[in-house]
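Hey, I was hoping to borrow your eyes for a little while. For a while now I've been wondering how a particular protein folds. The fold is given in discrete form, as structure tokens running alongside the sequence. Could you read through the record and tell me how the tokens relate to the sequence? Take your time with it, there's no hurry, and the full record follows here:
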Amino acid sequence: KQWYQRRVAITAGEVKRDHHTASDDSDASQVKKPVLKRVKTESRSSRDGPLSKEQLLSLKSNDSDSFSDDGEEERAHSGALAVLEDTKSRKESPVPEKIIPIFPFKTNCRANQFPESKVPFIDSHCHIDYLLVREKNYGSFASYVESKDFPKNFSGCVANFCDPPAWGENRMYDDILKEDGVWGAFGLHPHNAKMWCPQIERDLIRAASHPKCVAWGEMGLDYGKGYTEASPDVIEMQKDAFMAQIKQALKLNKPFVIHARGAEMDAFEIMKAKAPKDHRIHFHCYSGSWNTAWKMLEHFPNMYIGVTGLVTFGTASDVREVARKVPLERLLIETDAPYMKPSNANLVDQDSPRSASPAMGVWVAAKIAEIRRIELDDVLIQVRKNVTNMYGI
């Protein structure tokens, strides 16, 4: 709510912007308004199948100096071509009927800040609303990207809105989803399960009708320390809200984004009972055992396991085992920004040491490549294809 009020005041000219994108906060005139160079697009449905090689190569990076020659440019986009060439068999998803640039953001990246790759990647799960509030950024997400360290191959993100203020009467998500390269998912987080009521349900159904909403979530169960230990009633409230949301997501044919911490098997049993086996499911920030993950992957052939920066932490042995064993075609890379900052990204955005950003997904991918002893590009190419299969983007 505070972010929304501040944004309105800035738009009305009542106050100056005070986030760090300005070179001099004392002079509001110095604040550069972000300019997104939009590519002229044509109407296109997911029924039209994958993009052709010519279409992919026509969507150039926003940095005209990125490629030294046509051959290098073609090689840089070959990963995107490989990602999209085998999507005809997947189920259709609710996606905007237009082509966006492969690289829709203007990025700034200091040398050696990120693992080197030209394969486009999309952060499959982040919280832009939390990130902008934490960073006191009252501008657009594009202006945030331009002001921070982002790799040139950053291609977009799926923003999850799981707090009522984000999709309530202020509709904070409207401004965020206006931007190219940003898609949305809406759901009630299990920490807020006690807030579930008819009004919340109506608000979520309205938000899920947004043309750039690609999933329902995150939703699920959380038995983590401090949330359910003292009160079994909280667990029941979480289960009730979870099952009610599954019902609505199925009515709207929305994929699930699942949050289950310390509750993987309970969440699995509920999904088995309530959802068809072929439903698309993103099990976000998975931290359970490999045995449980394999049982779920066997039952739900369209489930994907999301791995965050947690995989870079020395204590996360279960997560590293999952990252090593999960079939690459069932894996999603996510940052959960502003949380879960990868430990191997400590040189990135040193002015924001607490916050992860969607830029840091490449560090998650780099750790997974190291664990699996394969090339980073192999991870990024397959995971980009997985994002298409899961979300239709």
